[in-house]
Fold:
Amino acid sequence: VTEEKWLSSPKVIRGPVDTAIVVGADWGEWSNLYQLAGERFKSETPRRFLQLELIMSTEDPGIAPRVRSLSIEFEDALVQGARGQILPRSAEPNTDTRFTYTLWSSADAGDPGFDRLRFTTPSAVDPSEVMLRLSGREVAPADLSVQGDSLLFVDLPETVTQDSIQVDFTAKVLRNATVFAANLGAAGRPGLWQSVEAVERRANIVFLPALAASDRLIGDLQIAPGAFTPNGDGINDSVEIRFALFKVEGTEPRVWIFDLSGRLVAELDRSPGGNVEAFSWAGRDRAGNLVRPGIYLCHIDARAESGKDSVVRSIVVSY
Structure:
């Protein structure tokens, strides 16, 4: 349903807003904007067809912008093609799940092949738990590395042209319809990454059935310790608040601390990085003073337009 049709419908039949986006089988998503000439290609490769959209503007009404030339440079692909799939294709939200990504490559006699794999994962992967198989034969990777919380690099022990490859790893999925993207690379051609296409429609997408049927937006909430002592002795001086956000994109949650009379005591800052939201409170109010011992209320707001987007829990401060 389009946004226009949804907004024009009576409120009683609109239903909740689900922001899950499923990538189409024929075309990729629009790339990020190109700001300068000479930038690297930002979409999946290789592709036989491209769509380009140019947005031209001017602040002078007497001058019409125009394009004088447009060119796209390309390099030969590593192999003729590569197709892949992820299994299983359903999981429990924010739960460690063992996945197997299988890819099949096809090549001509003159193709150089590939010796690196890059996976985009929804959470950080432990390299020690990664397993690699070539043609069903378990082999040791030449190297394993991770970058941030979403990239896994697997260096193969040999150059591959036509073969089947399976990579096992453990990850957590927070968003319904999460795409597991894979790319082929070569040590001798740094910066070149060839996309692996889905072997069939949605073969590289993992769904969360339990999440799709629920309006719950905040889950796996952990507040530890439940009672803390901010006295500066280095033991339980602060409380950590961690939770997962489901079906929420493009917004930052907010966490407040209130006393039992409803007075705002503090607004907490979000800790950077990670797929799980993290906040910390050192027992101080907005003026920087230590609060009195007692029971306080932690209010979490996902700042979503619909669904169960707020949670309140108690925290005990003692000395």
The chain has two domains: 17-211, 218-317. The longest helix spans residues 3-8. The domain at 218-317 is CATH 2.60.40.1930 (Immunoglobulin-like). The chain has three helices and 21 strands.
